[in-house]
Amino acid sequence: MPDCFISYSTADQAFATAVYNDLTAHGLDVFMAAISLQPGDRWSEQIHQALASSKWVIFLASRAACASQYVEQEIGGALLTKKDVIPVVWDMEPANLPGWTNQMHALDVRQQSPAQIQAHIQTLARRLKASKDKGFLIGASLVVGFFWLMSRSE
Predict the structure, then answer these.
(1) What is the dihedral of CA 117, 68, 56, 100, to 10 degrees?
(2) Residue 132: predicted pLDDT
(3) Strand partners, 31
(4) Contacts of residue 146, Cβ cutoff 8 Å, sequence gap at least 6
(5) Which residues are bridge partners to 4 per DSSP?
(6) Residues 7/68, Cβ–Cβ less than 8 Å
(7) Cα 103 to Cα 4, 61, 77, 94, 122, distances in angstroms
(8) pLDDT tens digits along 5-42
(9) CA dist., res. 28 & res. 59, Å (int)
(10) 17, 86, 102, 153: least buried by Cβ within 10 Å?
(11) What does the pLDDT look like over 63-111, one tens digit per residue?
């Protein structure tokens, strides 16, 4: 089950791959179609499953992505299922984000160097990883508490 799903246009493949590499380097399980899909996979089904099981959706919002019907479907599905969508813009104004995503605070990396962009993505990765770890610790604590209560009732 991926932690996050990267929604992007294939025209932005190089940028998406760099984001994928930064996120996975921080221990996150990331779904990115071009990397995650294997030959013979039913890509539509795999994309739906990954989107459904991901907590976060990283929306690499470029002009090309905003014009893509597939990206539009992914973001629509993410919003309907109340995923945490994080728009990342680099070649357009955040105010030009489509639909409901223009009401979200975007990570704006326009006019930044590749090193600065990488630093922003790594900061984002650390934030997502910390949230994931916190959720794991809470879940583990609940399980331990449940077993402790069960052992006391015997």
Answers:
(1) 100
(2) 79
(3) 5
(4) none
(5) 30, 56
(6) no
(7) 21, 14, 17, 9, 24
(8) 999 999 999 999 999 999 999 999 999 999 998 888 88
(9) 16
(10) 153
(11) 999 999 999 999 999 999 999 999 999 899 999 999 889 888 899 999 9
